[in-house]
């Protein structure tokens, strides 16, 4: 049944990938990257991001990511030329495959934690047949599933292994995701609280940054200005997160294309929102370290903070956190989240226009944000340190070495 569900989800995605061109900005960005790579590979960032594109009150860049996806883009353009299959379908095949792997990893970890076959199958179905995952990979063609797959695998590996080699391997997996997008690096905050020593922590971090640094080095040497421009990328404002809370009217731009005058608070968020997000994540990291929170629980808490304290939001961001929520057993909540975003996502992609479309969009997206806020409050309550007293034993490290009776060494 598991393989049937994964196969059904994969087949549905492949059909949608070739039937629909997808989001014009994202698919067009891949083609723009290919053209820039053909023109001058090492100056690709300057060429493709020379003219920022207006997105609401802020600017978007065609390619604000590391270069790890470049080989796949080039390969799919050339495969399209040879096979005459549409590029917009071929480029989505790797994210589709990544969704299938995520479904397997999620149910596998649940099985290791003692979940029943029915729960494991339901969790796999929420990935394989989940609207948030399908829209991201099969329609929009975004690479979030590919970037998060090795990061999810890193957390699973860290959870299951006590071997000395877990630090370099988990670090390399996080780094592999970081070579595609920067968000997988946040999973270091989920792993470091349970590191067994400073040496293991240092090994984990060093392994994680090695691959992205090597990948970025040629571009940094040849085109430091173009690469540095990516630090000005602010994300997608007005679709959700704090930016929608502060000025709900900004959603109208994404639904109608008409510019909305930004408020002073919105512009302040655009300028300082990243600092607020970093501060929120720093406080979360301190709480996770103090309580030595287990990796899966820590990862779920981190993504809740990202969704609530993040200034911007896009629908593909849900792929970052939903696998961890599922592995924590929150299947009902994940189902509700995916159901809640279905109408706003179809509005955003232009396939649904209900009466009072902007009001419906804003109401559902704000309800999603409030739901994440409530989840953070509940998670914080459970992260409280245990009360002092002789009747409550101190929490043992999940990675403490086993103890043996005397004489067994």
Structure description:
This protein has 409 residues and is an all-alpha fold. The chain has one domain (2-219, 235-382). Helix content is 67%, strand content 1%. It has 20 helices and 2 strands. The protein has helices at 2-19, 24-39, 44-48, 70-83, 87-90, 93-112, 117-128, 131-140, 144-160, 166-178, 188-191, 198-222, 224-228, 241-246, 251-256, 264-291, 295-309, 318-327, 331-349, 357-382, and strands spanning 53-55, 58-60. A two-stranded antiparallel ribbon has the order 1-2. Helix 9 runs antiparallel to helix 10 (166-178) and helix 9 packs parallel to helix 18 (318-327). The longest helix has 28 residues, at 264-291. It is globular, with a radius of gyration of 22 Å. Residues 385-409 have low confidence and may be disordered.
Oligomeric composition of the shown chains: single chain
Radius of gyration: 22 Å
- β-strand percent reads under 5%
What is the ordering of alpha helices and beta strands?
Answer: HHHEEHHHHHHHHHHHHHHHHH
Give the tally of structural domains.
1
Largest sheet: 2 strands, antiparallel
Low-confidence stretches: 385-409
By DSSP (H or I, 4+ residues per run), the number of helices equals: 20
> Please, what is the average pLDDT?
90
- Write down the overall geometry: globular
From the structure above, extract its key features.
67% helix, mainly alpha, two-stranded antiparallel sheet, disordered C terminus, single chain, 409 residues
Short description:
The protein is mostly helical and 409 residues long. The chain is built from 20 helices and 2 strands. Strand 1 and strand 2 form a beta hairpin.
């Amino acid at each position: 049944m598991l393989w049937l569900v994964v196969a059904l989800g994969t087949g549905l995605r492949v059909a949608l990938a070739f039937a629909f061109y997808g989001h014009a900005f994202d698919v067009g960005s891949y083609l723009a990257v290919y053209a820039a790579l053909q023109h001058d590979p090492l100056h690709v960032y300057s060429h493709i991001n020379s003219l920022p594109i207006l997105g609401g009150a802020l600017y978007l860049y065609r390619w604000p990511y590391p270069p790890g996806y470049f080989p796949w883009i080039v390969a799919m353009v050339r495969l399209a030329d040879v096979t005459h299959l549409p590029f917009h379908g071929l480029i989505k095949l790797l994210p589709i495959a990544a969704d299938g792997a995520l479904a397997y990893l999620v149910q596998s970890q649940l099985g290791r934690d003692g979940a029943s076959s029915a729960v494991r199958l339901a969790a796999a179905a929420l990935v394989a047949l989940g609207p948030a995952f399908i829209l991201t990979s099969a329609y929009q063609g975004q690479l979030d599933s590919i970037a998060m797959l090795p990061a999810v695998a890193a957390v699973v590996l860290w959870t299951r292994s006590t071997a000395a080699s877990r630090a370099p391997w988990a670090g390399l997996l996080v780094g592999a995701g970081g070579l595609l997008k920067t968000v997988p690096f946040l999973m270091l905050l989920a792993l470091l609280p349970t590191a067994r020593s400073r040496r293991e922590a240092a090994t984990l971090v060093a392994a994680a940054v090695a691959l992205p640094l090597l990948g970025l080095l040629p571009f940094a040497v040849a085109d430091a200005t173009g690469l540095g421009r990516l630090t000005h990328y602010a994300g997608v404002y007005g679709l959700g997160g704090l930016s929608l809370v502060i000025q709900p009217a900004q959603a109208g731009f994404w639904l109608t294309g008409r510019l909305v005058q930004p408020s002073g608070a919105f512009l302040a968020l655009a300028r300082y929102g990243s600092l607020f997000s970093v501060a929120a994540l720093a406080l979360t990291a301190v709480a996770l370290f103090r309580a030595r929170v287990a990796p899966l629980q820590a990862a779920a808490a981190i993504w809740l903070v990202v969704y609530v304290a993040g200034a911007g939001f896009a629908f593909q961001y849900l792929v970052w956190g939903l696998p961890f929520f599922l592995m924590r057993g929150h299947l009902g909540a994940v189902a509700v989240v995916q159901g809640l975003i279905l109408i706003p996502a179809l509005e955003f992609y232009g396939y649904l226009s209900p009466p009072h479309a902007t009001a419906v969009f804003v109401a559902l997206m704000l309800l999603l944000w409030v739901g994440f806020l409530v989840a953070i409050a509940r998670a914080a309550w459970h992260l409280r340190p245990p009360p002092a007293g002789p009747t409550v034993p101190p929490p043992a490290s999940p990675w403490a070495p086993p103890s043996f009776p005397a004489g067994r060494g």
